[in-house]
Amino acid sequence: MSQRDVRPFLEDIVRACDAVAAFIHGRDLESYRADLMLRSAVERQLMIVGEAVNKVRQADSLCAAVFGDVAGIVSFRNILVHGYFQINHEVVWRIAVDDAPRLRVAAFRELGSEPL
């Protein structure tokens, strides 16, 4: 697959990371932990990010390399999907706050200057 073929997945990453940022804006870890709907929404968007990164990896491993630890991102997605009973809310929060913005920037750079 070419860069053109991974574009929808890169756009999904940007959109999902934007959603995470909007959801957690003005919140802290304690309010995140206390809000089931917020946790569910953030986890869902991070699942989308993980799945989209995996699709990019399958289509274009060089493009996927911009995300860093691709295996770790996909593994985290698998934990969210299959290991829901062992989710550590502090880890999810850290990923939402620290990693999602970085992943968004990487995906946006790969997209270039064309609008979403």
User: Which quaternary structure do these chains form?
Assistant: single chain
What's the helical proportion of residues? over 70%
- Counted beta strands: 0
| H/E series | HHHHHH
Largest sheet: none
Rg value: 14 Å
Q: Distance N terminus to C terminus? A: 20 Å
| Beta-strand content estimate | under 5%
Mean pLDDT: 94
Broad structural category:
mainly alpha
How many helix segments?
A: 6
What sort of overall outline do the alpha carbons produce when their principal axes are compared? globular
How many domain units? Answer: 1
Poorly predicted ranges (pLDDT <50, ≥5 residues)?
Answer: none
Question: Can you tell me about this structure?
Answer:
By secondary structure, the protein is an all-alpha fold. The chain has one domain. It is built from 6 helices and no strands. Helix 1 packs antiparallel against helix 3 (about 35-60), helix 3 crosses helix 5 (about 70-80) and helix 3 (about 35-60) crosses helix 6 (about 90-110). The protein is globular and about 40 Å long. The two termini are about 20 Å apart. The model has no long low-confidence stretch (mean pLDDT about 95).
